[in-house]
Amino acid sequence: MKIQVLKSKLHCVTVTQAELDYIGSVTIDEDLMDAANLIENEQVHVLNKNNGQRFVTYVLRGNRGSGIICLNGPAALLVNLGDIIIIASYASMDFEKAKTFKPWVVFPNTNTNKLK
Q1: Which of 62, 53, 58 has the alpha carbon at shortest distance from 114?
Q2: Catalytic annotation on 90?
Q3: pLDDT per residue as tens digits for the range 29-59
Q4: How far is CA 8 from CA 5, 41, 43, 44, 102, in A?
Q5: Fewest CB atoms less than 10 Å from the CB: which of 23, 33, 54, 89?
Q6: Looking at domain 2-94, does it have CATH number 3.40.50.12780?
Q7: pTM of the predicted model, to two decimals?
Q8: What is the per-residue pLDDT across 57-83, written as a single tens digit (0 to 9) for each?
Q9: Dihedral of CA 111/102/3/58: which sign?
Q10: Is 92 a catalytic residue?
């Protein structure tokens, strides 16, 4: 049996941009992507701590060291600049392996979106 488990999480990053006129996605600083083991085009769930919105999109690579967290396309309507969000991805794995799997969980500085 396979189950879905948390693979990666950026816990409490700050929205720095929102671009409605774009095809979709969330742009993430490449340093944060590396730390959380996220790759470009990977599906992610976004949870907005300010308004309770939850939605699914995919990752775009942002400039390394920029601290960018930009919601693009329709997702831009679900956030405000300065909102605190959680970005999570999941993986399918064997039930027994899932019992010992340890996800990549990153707690960046919420003010700068940089690694502590």
Answers
A1: 62
A2: no
A3: 999 999 999 999 999 999 999 999 999 999 9
A4: 9, 14, 11, 9, 9
A5: 23
A6: no
A7: 0.96
A8: 999 999 999 999 999 999 999 999 999
A9: positive
A10: no
